[in-house]
Structure formats: structure tokens, C-alpha cells
Amino acid sequence: MSICQSNANAEASIIRNVAGRPKLSLTDIVTITELAPITDIMLLHHSDCGATHFTEESLKKQVRARVSGHDEELEAMYFGEIVGGDLERSVREDVEYLRTSPFVKKELKLHGYVIDIITGELKTVVE
Q1: Cα angle vertex 104, ends 98, 106, to 5°?
Q2: What's the N-to-C CA distance of the chain in angstroms?
Q3: Which tens digits make up the pLDDT trace of 14-37?
């Protein structure tokens, strides 16, 4: 999940997707940051995320068994696997992805967090 916040009016736009990976929502992030006075992007991953329970290849294999004749399109798809269940690493990777994207404004402040859905504890990973 990405939260785009404007300090000017204390509003936030929340962009949710499977795995919370910004690569899956880059066009949404770029659009909102171009059209609204956004100052910060807060990236949030959570414990027991579904993306920690599959691999890119296992999901592609499952889809391939159901859909034939679209191998090239399927191979180009990205599903957002969180390798080894390491949420902190995935947050760091995602903040770096945003930081290095030519489409994301360099003046945006990027933050990354992991929330434990059982305890509610919010851990800062990137500030």
C-alpha cells in the first residue's frame, strides 16, 4: 500500500494493491503526484501479507495451467512476490524503486513502514 500525503491540507490518497508493491501501481502514483500537491509517499507493508506465500514462478505456473496461448504476456507480468517473507527488505527495495524511478518527482519525501496486523505495531524501515 502506498499513501500519498499533502501537508498543505492534511489529506491523504491511499493506493492499495496486491503485495503493496509500487511497481504494480506506478501509473497511479505518478498521476496523483502530478495532479495533487503531494509532498510525501508512505509505503506500508503488513505482516502475513499474501505476497509472502507465493513466488512469481508458482503463480505464473498456476495461471499458465488455466490460460493457454498467452505465454509472452504472462511472462511480462509482475505479481509482487515478497521473497522469503522479508517485509523490511521489500520495503527498502520499494522505496529505492520509487527513489530511482525517472517518473517519480525527486522532491517527494519517501517513507517506508511495516505494520504487524496482530499487535498494531508500526515499525519504521525507511525515514
Answers
A1: 95
A2: 16
A3: 888 888 899 999 999 999 999 988
